[in-house]
Write a structure and sequence with these properties.
Layout (H helix, E strand, L loop, with lengths): L1 E3 L7 H10 L7 E3 L13 H4 L3 H15 L4
């Protein structure tokens, strides 16, 4: 589950609550400078931000590759 620290649509605490309610394989990614991102992320930044390929999509793809069905 991915959240942006500056997201004002899907607030990080609410997204974290939803994450806790999910079952199955999951990981939490709060995209923020404090966690190694190149920028602070708002809602659309997670998709089209300048550094989203590195900060968001690589970790998401890594998760999917590690949890794909055999």
């Amino acid at each position: 589950v991915v959240a942006g620290r500056r997201d004002r649509i899907a607030l990080a605490p609410a997204v974290r609550d939803a994450y806790r309610a999910l079952g199955g394989s999951k990981e939490w990614l709060l995209v923020s400078v404090a966690n190694g991102a190149k920028a602070e992320y708002g809602h659309m930044d997670l998709v089209i931000g300048e550094h989203a390929p590195r900060d968001v999509w690589l970790p998401v793809l890594d998760f999917l590759e590690r949890h794909q069905a055999p």
